[in-house]
Amino acid sequence: MRFFSYDSRFSQVMMKLSCSCYLNILWFVCSLPIFTIGASTTALYYASLKIIRDEESHAGRMFFHAFKENFKQATQLWLILLGTGLFLGADGYILYHLRKSSTGGMAVLWTLILALLIAVSVLYVIVLMYTFPLLASVHNTNAAMLKNAFLIGTHYLFATILVFAVHFAMFFAVVAVFTPLIIFGEGLCAMVTSWILNSLLIAVSGTPEDYMEDEPEEDPEELPMNTSDNITENSPEENA
Fold it and tell me: What residues contact residue 57 under an 8 Å CB cut-off, 6+ apart?
């Protein structure tokens, strides 16, 4: 039956689901040392983007190659983001208890500061969601990568909301509905997110042809919005 043929839409979806399950296991195992979460997440998105674009079928080979090639920069970015997240979390804990134990004008003051911290935390989450998919797709410096993650995440708010909703839905499903869904976990989230961000990156770069492999410039510039000059595919052979 054509419905079950290799080229049918059903078969292609099932293959992508099986790949997401396999990639989720690789991501989980390679993230166990904690400090490798950045490299593992970058490799996960690199492999997911390749699969979404039907450019490669060897998920494991792509994952480990990207993990090795992006390890240094991804680890640096992850440690920066991890430290920032811990700082925000500690501040939130302290401010919450200060507000709880205060009255009158001081309670109002702590409430305003806490609200500001929440706003900053939302921006932090946006940067966190976009940094590693960008690292898996384009060449840039650490500072420019973080800045571009912020700019793209705040510019394309609908895509940002979708990406957050995908991760929240998976978290809710695993915790409150059916725990064995954890077998798909971040792998399925990355696959769906890659589909969303693939369209977004095409919109940012202008044309799909901008994903052709080129040699990165010696001094990579910050990724401008709505231009295609500085976007190149992050192939394992070129990325250091």
Answer: 51
Q: How far apart are CA 162 and CA 167, in angstroms?
A: 9
Measured distance between the N- and C-terminal CA atoms of the chain, rounded to whole angstroms = 46
When divided into structural domains, the chain yields a total of 1
Rounded Cα distance, 139 and 84, in Å: 23
Task: Tell me whether residue 11 is in a domain.
Answer: yes
Residue 186, domain member (yes or no)? yes
Residue 163, amino acid: V
141: domain range? 2-211
Instruction: For residue range 21-52, list pLDDT tens digits in order.
Output: 999 999 999 999 999 999 999 999 999 988 88
162: which 2 tokens?
């979708």
Q: What are 119-137's pLDDT values in tens digits?
A: 999 999 999 999 999 998 8
Within-domain flag for 7? yes
198-218 confidence digits (pLDDT tens): 878 666 654 444 444 444 444
Please check whether residue 66 lies inside any domain of the structure: yes
Burial of 165 (0-12, 13-18, 19+ CB in 10 A): exposed
- The model carries a pTM of 0.79
